[in-house]
Amino acid sequence: MTQHGVNPAYRHQDKLVMPRDTISLKGAKLKWYDLAPADLPVPDAIRQLAQAYLLRTDIDLGDDLGFVILHRCGQEFYFLLVSTWRGNNELWETVHGKVSDAHADFAVFPQESPHRGTFCVWELGAVWHEQQAWKTYLRSSRDEAAQQAYLGDSFAGIV
């Protein structure tokens, strides 16, 4: 039985957010974050698989700016969260996942309920930083230098 949505057996542990190289997807420029337990980081092969998946998908991000979070959620499950800034101050998201080693690739993650999860407590660490960085960009001249400053402003640390 849960109390306020939390299983009594749940024991919370910190994770580590690590920025990686920016990725360009058909005009969009996205910061990249790996998110995982410090002692069980995202393997390079999984990151490369996720990047290759995004490069060949038909997701239309236009020339948006934003970020990707590749979140290791246990031994074999990964969320791949693609977030872009639209409508001046709105964060838009597409959720992909790799369910297990038995699944060869990432796929769009099914969302079957109108009331569904968005970001978990760990992902919110990177999202909060990105919200602050976007506010700085919005207050800037929003020229090429400001875009490069936004893309260069990443977060690393324990969440």
Explain what you see.
This protein has 159 residues and is α+β, with helices and mostly antiparallel strands. 24% of the residues lie in helices and 31% in strands. It has helices at residues 44-56, 123-138, 144-152, and strands at residues 16-25, 28-36, 65-72, 78-86, 90-98, 107-108, 157-158. The protein has a seven-stranded mixed sheet with strand order 6-5-4-3-2-1-7, sandwiched between helices. α2 packs antiparallel against α3.
Shape: globular
Amino-to-carboxy terminus distance = 27 Å
Helix content: 10-25%
Described by strand count, sense and barrel closure, the largest sheet is:
7 strands, mixed
Mean pLDDT score: 96
How much of the residues is beta strand, in percent? Answer: 25-35%
**Rg of Cα set:** 16 Å
Number of strands: 7
Q: Biggest sheet: strands side by side, in what order?
A: 6-5-4-3-2-1-7
- SSE succession: EEHEEEEHHE
Q: What oligomerization state is this entry in?
A: single chain
| Low-confidence spans | none
Number of helices: 3
Structural class: alpha+beta
At a glance:
This protein is α+β, with helices and mostly antiparallel strands and 159 residues long. The protein has helices at residues 44-56, 123-138, 144-152, and strands at 16-25, 28-36, 65-72, 78-86, 90-98, 107-108, 157-158.
Layout of strands and helices, then pairs:
Layout lengths: L15 E10 L2 E9 L7 H13 L8 E8 L5 E9 L3 E9 L8 E2 L14 H16 L5 H9 L4 E2 L1
Parallel strand pairs: 2-3
Antiparallel strand pairs: 1-2, 1-7, 3-4, 4-5, 5-6
Task: State the main characteristics.
globular; 7 strands; 31% strand; alpha+beta; seven-stranded mixed beta sheet; single chain
